[in-house]
């Protein structure tokens, strides 16, 4: 029996962080056992923000090597760069002509990004979710594993599939999102979502001493909400991160000991650091090895794009016929 197809992507801006890892990448690795998996670097999406062209390709290669090092090896999945398969932008245009402007203006990410980048509110920032819908539907993917912040975009993708099917005949499945156990990680400030742009993150490839320093000084519920609800671990961002790295038995112990004040935040952070490094150290070693082999990383992306291109060409042919272009 054919495996269901899943797809997801990550932008190549800067360095992948722990939010990306526990919100998405770790789940992606796990899902490779059950699905036909396509994962890609969203290099066209990231162009909506000001960037340095001379350094861009290096960022794409760095993101790819991080994903491979995390376990998304070519044996387990198809890894590629969005711009290597022209069907993404082809299909996005057709979806542009089906999408009401109001749907795009309502998107939270559009509002946030236009606030953050007032000097560069380009049309790409607005039509960003249409390209995302094209990424997914170009391969007729049925499941999209993402963090919570992307759910609104998957909802728009479902509406886009429905609109196309209603207008031109049944063509696309309505994909479902799938969240990890930790779909929303806050930044080290304990306030906003962990993100590259807010510089409140722990990088997957940060050196151990930096990771400890960032954890040691990270906000806990003590700073955030202790006055309201003293010592409730479920309100603490670090406890959420613990859920992704620590065994269930330890989590129960920590929750109990945190509530009764048997352990303080620093002990909790030390345990988290140790468990986190146990998982990240082998990833960092593999990433360091791949850093010496950029050609190998590029070859993985090219092979992946080759496979995707075949799927994309067939779907675009069907789309053009149905839309009356052929
Ligand atoms: P991006 O690059 O912002 O993030 C990649 C993945 O990491 C998740 N994530 C988080 N999860 C939990 N806590 C956080 N603080 C956190 N920050 C990021 C994101 O939810 C995402 O799953 N638009 C997408 C890329 C994209 C895409 C697609 C995804 C383009 N086309 C098609 C799925 C399908 C983005 O900017 O992800």
What distinguishing features does this structure have?
326 residues; mainly alpha; Rossmann fold; Tyrosyl-Transfer RNA Synthetase; 3-stranded parallel β-sheet; two-stranded parallel sheet; 13 helices; 5 strands; 7% strand; globular; binds tryptophanyl-5'AMP
In which range does the helix fraction lie?
40-55%
| Broad CATH class of the largest domain | Alpha Beta
- The assigned structural class equals mainly alpha
What percent strand?
A: 5-15%
Order of helices and strands: EHEHEHHHHEHEHHHHHH
Question: Using only CA atoms, what is the Rg?
Answer: 21 Å
Overview of the molecule:
The chain has 326 residues and is mostly helical. The chain folds into 2 domains: 5-182 and 294-322, Rossmann fold (3-Layer(aba) Sandwich), CATH 3.40.50.620; 208-288, Orthogonal Bundle (Tyrosyl-Transfer RNA Synthetase). Helices cover 55% and strands 7% of the residues. The chain has a 3-stranded parallel β-sheet. It has a two-stranded parallel sheet with strand order 4-5. Helix 2 packs across helix 12 and helix 10 crosses helix 12. The protein starts with a strand and ends with a helix. The mean pLDDT is 94. The protein binds tryptophanyl-5'AMP (TYM). Residues 7-11, 19-20, 23-24, 42, 45, 132, 135-136, 144, 146-147, 149-150, 183-185, 193-195 line the site of tryptophanyl-5'AMP.
């Amino acid at each position: 029996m054919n495996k269901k197809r899943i797809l997801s992507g990550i932008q190549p801006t800067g360095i992948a962080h722990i939010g990306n890892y526990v919100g998405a990448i770790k789940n992606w690795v796990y899902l490779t056992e059950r699905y036909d998996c396509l994962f890609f670097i969203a290099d066209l999406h990231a162009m909506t923000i000001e960037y340095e062209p001379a350094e861009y390709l290096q960022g794409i290669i760095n993101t790819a090597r991080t994903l491979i090092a995390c376990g998304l090896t070519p044996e387990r999945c198809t890894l590629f760069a969005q711009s290597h398969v022209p069907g993404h932008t082809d299909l996005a245009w057709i979806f542009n002509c089906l999408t009401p402007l109001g749907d795009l203006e309502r998107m939270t990410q559009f509002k946030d990004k236009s606030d953050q980048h007032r000097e560069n509110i380009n049309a790409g920032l607005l039509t960003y979710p249409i390209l995302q819908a094209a990424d997914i539907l170009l391969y007729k993917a049925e499941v999209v594993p993402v963090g919570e912040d992307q759910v609104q975009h998957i909802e728009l993708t479902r509406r886009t599939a429905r609109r196309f099917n209603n207008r031109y005949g049944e063509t696309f499945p309505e994909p479902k999102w799938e969240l990890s156990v930790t779909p929303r990680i806050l930044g080290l400030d304990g306030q906003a979502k962990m993100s590259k742009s807010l510089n409140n993150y722990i990088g997957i490839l940060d050196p151990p001493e930096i990771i400890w320093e960032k954890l040691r000084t990270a906000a806990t519920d003590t700073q955030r909400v202790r006055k309201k609800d003293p010592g409730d671990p479920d309100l603490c961002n670090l406890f959420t991160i613990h859920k992704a790295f620590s065994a269930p038995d330890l989590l129960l112990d920590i929750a109990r000991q945190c509530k009764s004040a048997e352990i303080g935040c620093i002990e909790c952070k030390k345990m988290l650091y140790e468990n986190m490094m146990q998982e990240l150290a082998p990833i960092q070693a593999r990433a360091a090895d791949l850093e010496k082999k950029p050609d190998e990383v590029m070859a993985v992306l090219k092979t992946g794009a080759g496979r995707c291109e075949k799927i994309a060409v067939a779907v675009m042919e069907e789309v053009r016929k149905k839309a009356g272009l052929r």
